[in-house]
């Protein structure tokens, strides 16, 4: 009877320890996963911001570098396609990690998706404008991308 009691309590303690370790591991994976998501989106937005700076510099030139602008437009269009995937549940302030993303993103996903789609559309128009090599069209397309970014930031980003 004494051995049965000891065996049963040892088994219960072992089960409790296993469940605790699983919960800790799951929590660590969630934090790691959220950190990876936040790093990915911050990296993507920095790449897009850097590409926008190329336009600011090049459009001030008498003869802008078409290759530099083409590469910048391609970068913006490439990352724009992924923006809507960079904000899964659990990757906001509740993760405890450094992010400027406001909770409103997850409270109003339809509005966020609309802004994401607008960014994809305007970034593709930028690629097309750069291909036309018409400075006026490029400037207008850059403004459209900038406005798309600003509209989204005003609703969903803490500045």
What does this structure look like?
By secondary structure, this protein is an all-alpha fold. Helices cover 77% and strands 0% of the residues. The protein has 5 helices and no strands. The protein has helices at residues 2-58, 66-80, 104-107, 109-132, 135-156. The longest helix is centred in the N-terminal third of the chain and has 57 residues, at 2-58. It is elongated, with a radius of gyration of 24 Å. The relative contact order is 0.11.
The oligomeric state is single chain
Radius of gyration: 24 Å
Poorly predicted segments: 9-31
Helical content stands at over 70%
Order of helices and strands: HHHHH
Strand count, sense and barrel status of the largest sheet are:
none
Q: Separation of termini?
A: 67 Å
Beta strand count:
0
Strand content: under 5%
Structural class: mainly alpha
Global morphology: elongated
**Number of helical segments with 4 or more residues:** 5
What do the pLDDT scores average to?
86
Layout of helices and strands:
Elements (H helix, E strand, L loop, with lengths): L1 H57 L7 H15 L23 H4 L1 H24 L2 H22 L3
Helix pairs in contact: 1-2, 2-4, 4-5
Give a quick precis of the structure.
This protein is 77% helix and 0% strand.
Key structural traits:
159 residues, mainly alpha
């Amino acid at each position: 009877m004494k051995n049965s009691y000891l065996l049963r309590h040892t088994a219960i303690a072992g089960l409790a320890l296993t469940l605790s370790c699983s919960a800790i591991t799951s929590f660590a994976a969630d934090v790691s996963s959220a950190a990876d998501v936040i790093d990915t989106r911050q990296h993507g937005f920095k790449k897009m911001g850097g590409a926008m700076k190329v336009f600011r510099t090049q459009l001030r030139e008498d003869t802008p570098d078409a290759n530099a602008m083409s590469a910048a437009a391609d970068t913006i269009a490439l990352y724009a396609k992924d923006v809507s995937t960079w904000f899964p549940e659990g990757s906001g302030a509740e993760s405890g990690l450094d992010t400027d993303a406001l909770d409103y993103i997850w409270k109003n996903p339809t509005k966020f998706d609309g802004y994401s789609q607008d960014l994809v559309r305007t970034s593709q128009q930028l690629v097309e404008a750069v291909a036309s090599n018409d400075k006026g069209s490029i400037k207008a397309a850059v403004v459209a991308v900038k406005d798309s970014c600003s509209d989204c930031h005003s609703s969903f980003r803490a500045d």
